[in-house]
## 1
Amino acid sequence: MKTEHIRNFSIIAHIDHGKSTLADRMLDITHTVSERDRKEQLLDDMELERERGITIKSSAVTMRYEFEGQEYMLNLIDTPGHVDFNYEVSRALAACEGALLVVDATQGVEAQTVANTYLAVESNTELIGVVNKVDLPAAQPDVVAEEIEHIIGVRKEECFYISAKSGKGVEELLRAIVLLLPPPENLNDEPTAALVFDSHCDAYRGVICYVRVVAGSLRKGQKIRLMRSGRSYVISELGKFTPQMTPIEKMGAGEVGYVIANIRNLSDVTIGDTITDEAEPAKKPLPGYNPPMQMVFSDFYPGNNTEYDELRSAFNKLALNDASFSFAPQNSPALGFGFRCGFLGLLHMEIIQERLERENQIDVVQTAPTVSYEVKTSDGQIERIDSPSEMPDRSAIEEIREPFVKLEIITHADSIGPIMKLAEDRRCNLLKTEYLSTIRVMLEYKAPLAEIVYDFFDLIKGASRGYATMDYEFLGFEPGNLVRIDILINSQPVDALALIVHRSKAELRGRKLIKKLRQVIPRHQFEIPLQVAIGGKIIARETIRAYRKNVTAKLYGGDVTRKMKVLKKQREGKKRMKNIGQVEVPQEAFMSILDTSD
Amino acid sequence: MIRAILIELKQKSSYRPFATAYLGGGSPAILPRSLLFELIDGISAEIPADAEFTIEVNPDQVKYELLKDLRSLGVNRLSIGAQSFIDDELKFLGRCYNAQTVEMAVNTARKAQFENISLDLIYAIPQSNSARWRENLRKAIALSPQHISAYSLCYEPGTPLYADLKKGNIRQAEEETDRQMYEITIDMLARAGFEQYEISNFAMSGFTCRHNLTYWLNEPYIGIGPAAHSCYRRVRSANVSDIRQYIEKIRHDKNACIEWSELTDEQFACETAVLNLRLSDGIDVKRFKALTGIDVSKAFGDVLKKYTSLGLIEEKQGRIALTGAAMPIADSILCDFSSFYTEPD
Ligand SMILES: Nc1nc2c(ncn2[C@@H]2O[C@H](COP(=O)(O)OP(=O)(O)OP(=O)(O)O)[C@@H](O)[C@H]2O)c(=O)[nH]1
Ligand SMILES: [Mg+2]
């Protein structure tokens, strides 16, 4: 197909504004999916996506669309809206000339709307403004279009009003895509260069690369080279997503599809790499991507030491399909052998955790997530620390640096006060306040990641009756007055409970933590002291009282079965606990670090 | 119903000779004399002449004539549900007799030639305290029974007491008070010559309750009558509890059992361990192996190691037993014996 008849576009938006639903309607109108195969959010095909009703991974699909007697090829990429999966959006945008920026007519512009707009601008993507859900009684399309003009810079007259649910306005939108979005550049005669913008691993066929051909062409049987890794392969199959994989013989410049070339390991393909022709290679690779940045780290230990190998193979399997998840062996004096895992954010962590449990049925004990720090040691070395327990001795530290982000919050004007108060408590520095309209405001902060990555979003939601949305972007590491808090259970320091906090908050956090631990660690047959130490000095103590009386007074024949059940239940409660010294510590204890409430 | 019970008794006595008999489960003494005697006669016929044969009575049911007759029919052990020697505690427990009745009952029993008398007592009653409990024990000891069972008050779901507790009308004794009273019990009874042979049971030398030991040793026993439980050849079973249904079933099938479960080797070993450990003598390692086919030190190796190191379990002379420190908090330990143990780590 001629490049002038191709349009490549992404659908981007804040969470739940209707991207996947809009994709459904486009698939309907273009008859890409047969009546029989129709279902809601068809492109969300992972089990977890369907259960949670959110998009986690981008999906590409090729549609045929006839306009004024001419057939066009429309390549659509549906993207996730959640902040953790931002990088999916950048990847998708790099494979497109245009993007539909969808905004919910009842919600207006929100934090991820703004963040995604920045990404689109950075990658020189042409934007079409789309106001969705106009069928809802609470819809205020004009007000929202005004916001779009004001914040995004797309003129309100040029916004499309649609209902992705009913299909109203979607036909017009398809026409606009053909008319308003630029076709890809015609580089068919140049040496082959195709961008790998995503990949997944199939148990039988190996790695499947999602590609956008930028120049030249790809065909079956072609000998290709991945320019960054330098490895060569032969294309065994290539094709389109319709949305299932449909093989074709050849793909020209501007087209989007997949390539299978007997690549066994996901790690052999870097997302952002360039595929070129082995015999007639491109001069230089296409600009790639920055690898997604892991924001939080957490240790996973098998609930039972014998399951270590099973846990490793489970992680291997997960990493095979998720290049942004990492794991490495970790050995904790308190918890034994396990793995340090890196995630893009808390939602990403939750998803991995859920898949681990669901697909493998392994009991795990997980430590509270932490951000990573940089430590400058006295000999001038800079070390990356993503577990507080790895923090070197105080005397060997010159400075500790923590990650900072640019934080954007969009909220109603009447909740500014409480939100600013929360941000201040979390050591955030206000950079900018901007009124999006008379009643909606965008606050921009420089914030320590550790202060906002766990519960902050819930807090600002709470402070704004659910209105506030936020997004953040990594800025860099900066020195801070940070200290490590150690927790001792039964006089034994527990590495998995150590945490790094700002000195101004250290004592309070430590006290809260042992108060919480006192509630979650069950009583034992002996008294258990809980202590907080900073720099080796004990600053607080709580005590878990010992059992004094815990025995069934009467137990005769007829009571045995019932009593055994009760005892089993009492024991069941200990199952997911870790033995630290003689103390059985439940999973929740490790998570109590996160609980900063009073 | 007595007819049905006698039929069941005849039927089940063919399994294996009975070594002891226990007539309890409420107040058998309220039965009309003729029926009661017929029942006891029937039981006596199935057990050896010198076998322990206990009947449960409430203090206010004790009449010299009745006891004399029971004694002559072969009953040789009397378990008196005294509960307390303090009037307002008795009232709280819903008993319609007073402390004096209890004392009289014991004296009457002795007059009727009962030489093996047991008293049930209850502590940790909301209005009780250490002084009152000591008083209770003193009075009990003064009557020189051969056996005392002392139970901490328990609130069983479904009872009025439980409902009152949930409604907040009464307050459960503090854990610490409960513990203190338990310690007082052990201490005072020991000084009076009683030996603690089970968590809640104390006996003068030679007067342990043979019948109840069967349960804690996890030996087979046969329950007869509505709602009775049995454990025979690793099968735990229970009779239907509705009296009319019970009679019906016995009449038609000679059997009133409505639920049974065969224990796996693991379940049986775990039960045996939990029950044995309630005894001061604990688990007899050899006997355990012979009974269950399982090596106790292997099956519970980790948990034994753990509690031995905490001084809560002692192993000596082929026995594994809870230490004195462990008895008051036995459940927190026994739960680790409820299934084969693998150390959480
Ligand atoms: N009434 C109405 N509801 C809509 C419309 N479009 C989408 N929805 C609903 O909005 C919810 C979110 O829709 P999705 O299409 O999953 O949103 P999304 O933007 O893909 O969400 P993420 O992928 O999680 O970011 C669903 O319940 C849809 O049914 C619309 O035009 N009108
Ligand atoms: Mg979606």
Note: The first strand of chain B starts at residue 20 and ends at 23.
## 2
Amino acid sequence: MNIYVLMKKTFDTEEKIQIDGGVIEEEGAEFIINPYDEYAIEEAIKIRDDHGGEVTVVTVGDEESEQQLRTALAMGADKAVLVNTEDDLEDGDQYSTVRILEAYFEDKDVDIILAGNVAIDEASGQVGPRLADKLDIPYVTTITNLEIGGEDVKIVRDVEGDEETVETSLPLLVTCQQGLNEPRYPSLPGIMKAKKKPLEELELDDLDLDEDDVEAKTETVEVFLPPEKEAGRVLEGETEDQVKELVSLLKTEAKVL
Amino acid sequence: MNFELTKEQEMIRKMVRDFATEKIAPRAIDIDVNAKFPEDLFKEMGELGLLGIPFPEEVGGSGGDTVSYALAAEEIARVCGSTGLSYAAAVSLGSSPIYYFGTDEQKEKFLKPLASGEALGSFGLTEPNAGSDAGGTKTTAKIDGEDYVINGEKCFITNASYAKQIIVTAVTGKDDRGKNIISAIIVPTDTPGITITDNYDKMGVRGSNTAEIVLEDVRVPKENLLGDPEKGFKQFLYTLDGGRISIAALGVGIAQASLDKALEYAKERKQFGQSISNFQAIQFKLADMAMEVELARNMVLKAAWLKDQGKNFTKEAAYAKLFASETATRNANEAIQIHGGYGYMREYEVERYLRDAKLLEIGEGTSEIQRLVIARQFGC
Ligand SMILES: Cc1cc2nc3c(=O)[nH]c(=O)nc-3n(C[C@H](O)[C@H](O)[C@H](O)COP(=O)(O)OP(=O)(O)OC[C@H]3O[C@@H](n4cnc5c(N)ncnc54)[C@H](O)[C@@H]3O)c2cc1C
Ligand SMILES: Cc1cc2nc3c(=O)[nH]c(=O)nc-3n(C[C@H](O)[C@H](O)[C@H](O)COP(=O)(O)OP(=O)(O)OC[C@H]3O[C@@H](n4cnc5c(N)ncnc54)[C@H](O)[C@@H]3O)c2cc1C
């Protein structure tokens, strides 16, 4: 089977994030594999181990993304591809990423593509579905279980806490949700072997794309941190009065009604 | 000059940090309170290849280097000193001597299971009356036919209750000048005549197994002799040099954890209407702590790097061990101080750091012995 994983390098949102002049300060930020993509990598390795084939991890990123690709190789992926847009793309968006991936996959024979449900930095959840649409293959999002038998695929997906079972067929794109599996740690021998596995680096040129082709369709107007959480307030008195007070606070203070 | 880690070293550190944070840290208080050796964690660490970092694949290892090993030891000690000590002892004392001095057969038979993480090994040097003065070893090993017959007593031996084998130092004869010849012999723990008891009630590193060993007419084949029969003493000095790098790395881990906890607490804790981190008295403590962690880490990594380059590292390993272990104790002590009354409580963990750190100033050569080692390097 030809198994592909879409992976994104993100900053660790559990670490302190600083914003300077409307951009996230990269110096000092910790970079990780987008956690949902870790489920995708784990599932891809399992599919390969059960059904044979090869796992290729693809990322659109910069020079530094090599670290995350090597980690995926250390977990057990076979090949990695870095589309390095550092010199060609100032501010990409989901459109840009999908356009690049579409070009990459144009001549590829794909059985399954696994992506994360969302990337924790921008959390759009768009890249997977939009790519599937461009490649004209079915897609299923937020999956928590996957069984492949020949061409047939049985999937359980998370729908806001409930489960939905979907039957579909290969080729296919899925986006992975927490609960699908428990991503393995890259083992020491895995890390040492990753050094010798193939990592292909491409630029837009290699995909016959121009900067204009991938120009973002959206514009980021402002980047800001959420306001610091203030201490909660406990309302007191008769339930009826509390409700009235709550509604009035929602109108006047929180201004959400 | 280049202070950057390689990609592999970076990945190893990240993996061990993730593993330590997710799997070890939630159990650290429990491991300390119940003084229970976390055998299952060692199984997992073995599967990840952590027990074989500095050994090549041919002997079951992971093919990493001393720098990676030091980074791993630091990350483990950062969350749990007990697990850290047992880890460092298993690799540096249990496995390394066989890797340095063992024959191919010994490596196959005794090192492979340790390096691949299936079993643990110990190193039994210390005796009730021979601690710092290892030359005072009383345990004897006498040749009888094809065997050594070993008699004696060892104390404070890390991991012994869980070990597949123990490398025991023993007097095997006298040289021309009438001085004792001390050799190292590999003794499987299922050999008749060995009694291993772990009744110590320790101040710190309570979850690390520490045991007393009595050897009564213990028979092992002559081929279990490790390395040169005449140079056993030199061999374990070399072993301890290497081990000091890992003990130092544990010190860096505890010192870093102390700083992390103290800084976080100082920012949150309000007294006199503001965060105590606004007070210069606290800031100066934090600044000193951060500086010393960084200095200690640099020294550890330099010693590890020298070892990886095949250069002499005796002095640097002693610097690293001495400074990092004392830094760990100082930082843990300051972390408690910054926590005030809360720091005295187990729940806040910093009091455990102090108890764990103290061992690092004693094991694998006390601070005084490190100073002797350093001075000897000047020809004193
Ligand atoms: C938890 C734990 C785990 C251990 N694990 C192991 C292990 O796995 N294997 C093993 O073999 N041993 C192990 N040890 C033993 C450890 O290495 C010794 O405790 C240590 O070397 C000190 O020896 P000692 O306890 O006999 O103290 P002593 O040697 O009696 O020292 C007492 C004091 O005298 C000082 N002193 C001694 N000689 C001199 C001198 N010449 N000049 C100045 N001061 C001096 C020392 O620095 C110390 O302050 C462990 C100990 C502990 C507590
Ligand atoms: C075992 C035990 C028994 C106790 N018994 C009693 C008792 O019987 N009765 C009782 O009332 N209390 C008791 N205490 C409480 C004890 O007195 C307090 O823990 C102590 O006064 C410190 O207060 P704190 O813990 O709130 O620390 P904090 O006041 O929060 O101090 C935290 C750190 O900030 C530093 N700091 C605070 N303010 C400043 C400043 N302005 N400038 C510079 N540094 C500053 C402190 O020195 C400390 O290092 C007990 C505590 C313990 C642990």
Note: The interface with chain B takes residues 66-67, 70-71, 74, 185-192, 194-195 of chain A (CB under 8 Å).
